[in-house]
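Deliverable D4.2, example record:
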Amino acid sequence: MTALASRRRSHTVRGAAIVAGALVVAMLLTAGGVATLARSTIGAEVETGAAVSPRLPFTATAFIGLVDDDGVLRSAAMLVLDPDGIGGSIVPVEATADIASNRSVEVIPLAAGLASGGVDLLRLDAESLTGVSFDLVTVLDASEFAELLEPIGLVNVELETGVSDDSTGRRWSAGAATLAPESVAALLVTHADGVESASLARLRAEIWDGIAAAVGDGLDSLKGVFVTGELDPRAVPATIRSFWRRLLAGEIGSRPLRVEPLAPERVPTGTEVTFHDWSETLLVSAHVAPTRVAAPLDAATVRLVVPFGLDDSVAADLTPTDIAISAIDRMVLAGLNVISVSVAFDGSSSVTPPEATQVWVGDEARVTDAAASFALLVGDVTALVGDYRIDGVDVIIVLGRDFIDDLDRDIRPFLEGSIFEADRG
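Output generated by the structure prediction step:
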């Protein structure tokens, strides 16, 4: 038995037996609350007797907007550098996406902020849309973005449908294509009346995917240019060009968000508006840039671990992403701040899920209340307390196999009268 195991206490609650009550989660989670997680080398490290308090790594972020010749925002993406300062992630977002993700009475597309308030308002709207704070926000036209693409060279794409740009008359045929930087940039800002927003969104996502694939494990011309190691927040690139060079120096992952149509009665006359699902957006943001995700609510901060893979027989018809989104839906409904998510988007997780969902807390005196409280949200729970703590995180939730059986449960009746409902006001 490891030293951690000998100092660990747990309490298990059957979620189906829970009666929603005013459980004092605020007492469970102290203001300086932290959480613990048994993963990786935790057992070996605790044997040394050293107190370990890991932290989420800093990640530099940028938001890039691409405009057409009329200055209208047509494409955008969140850019995140990996913690070692090279390579990272591209998360395309739609210029037509509602900045409140269809969660507010008022509907405002991302493009409207740039049109009415310039880059400063675009920054606020982009941070609202993604939940992420940005070091850089910039707007480029097609020719300026083409210059950034020059080091990459040709980009291979598979266009789902042919498209014509209404303003220039240029046309791209459906099928496989090898595009020069100028064509890549032109496609990203193209606009075609009569083409569904979803079709254009898929086209833009394919372009961003192609850019990431063309970089491979980093451009040869940038190998060895940057000293790797965790990027100091004081050394964040000051311009989009320097940020982009660091991004191209390592492997890039592209993760487009699904684009959903709004109900017709929600769309203002003469306005093109779509939305990204907030739970999916939060999943992606909290996965690629956990230290930059805002915690706007006066509630616990949560790290969610989704240890399922595509080969897991329990999750036969679900992807790890599906499971993660369902869990985040519940956290959001309960008014919790999800700031970090660990999930295998490609389904290649080698971690064995526990049977019951594990809720790790930092206060041994509150472990029983933790089991009862979080069973309202995720079903059968084992609450544990241990020695490993992550700065800025109050609770770590490791989803178990039993959560799959709980997916069809409507948790709203269980939240009525509970501390979660009280926290939501």
